[in-house]
């Protein structure tokens, strides 16, 4: 019996999570596993009502779960950064989810803005470090609001944090068909932090002789995502660059409506989410694409060891995309509502 924490969050979060859970229910019956959902209402509404974002007691409770399923956080009524830092980043850090795993896969019949590229050209995965770097929240301001203001934002790279991320990426690359791992950094400028990444990459790489090693500076990487996405198989990179290049990756694979990700602690509690935000302007309209949230359930099942269920979801998403009923990935242009897309995927499973 799995215990799954559900945090629908803000904006369109609850609508897409509902579709993800619909699919989870169908899959669980098909491959026969039991689960219990524990719902949490953390997010903008609760914060505005009570001033509470995420109490430490909740984190202790989360540690007893098997996995967490998250919708989206962020709301225009709450100052930017408050919920992002207080909820999403706090969870990633407190649960030590040190990997942010983001597959970039172009499915058949999905439109990509890149001319002449097909599904065989766009199939890679980004391993983003998820607990350090510029996200560590260290730094401060001096003389704030004056003409002499000084703002310092630290970029922390620890040998331990970098090495465990790189090791995870090598292990993943080794399991994939092409067995190629590209380190993406900016070591030509960040000569302390990213020099550490390069040395760790070379040293850990010694243990993975069968994995082909490659390197790209992050600016060039952005160019190649568009020009030659087929060059990439597995990518490992720091927190901030991983954040940026996976939005680009999402567009390359047809849009944020289909991109899912996992915040993974291989030794602890992991959390799965669509990588898009809370899209408040679509809230309650039944217009947003739930496929990213559904794909996140697939990743979640894989993490739980329910590989058959994960495969069923992946196949059902592919069928939903090729059956001709979904016209476009973008919210409002799908030709179907959020619930109808959820039903379509669920029907292909049951
Ligand atoms: C993401 C998001 C978050 C991040 C924000 C909401 C803090 O953009 O998951 O990619 O920067 O990690
Ligand atoms: Mn992001």
Report on this model:
It is a single chain. The chain is an alpha/beta fold and 350 residues long. The chain folds into 2 domains: 1-100 and 257-350, Isopropylmalate Dehydrogenase; 112-253, Isopropylmalate Dehydrogenase (3-Layer(aba) Sandwich), CATH 3.40.718.10. 41% of the residues lie in helices and 19% in strands. The chain contains 11 helices and 12 strands. The protein has helices at residues 13-31, 44-50, 56-62, 82-94, 159-175, 193-205, 218-227, 239-252, 291-304, 307-322, 338-349, and strands at 2-9, 35-39, 67-72, 99-105, 123-129, 139-142, 150-153, 180-185, 212-217, 234-237, 260-264, 270-274. The strands form 2 sheets. The protein has a 10-stranded mixed β-sheet with strand order 2-1-3-12-11-4-5-10-8-9, with helices on both faces. Strand 8 (180-185), helix 6 and strand 9 (212-217) form a beta-alpha-beta unit. Helix 1 packs across helix 10 (307-322). The radius of gyration is 20 Å and the shape is globular. The two termini are 21 Å apart. The model has no long low-confidence stretch (mean pLDDT 97). The structure holds 3-isopropylmalic acid and manganese (II) ion. Manganese (II) ion (MN) binds at residues 243, 247.
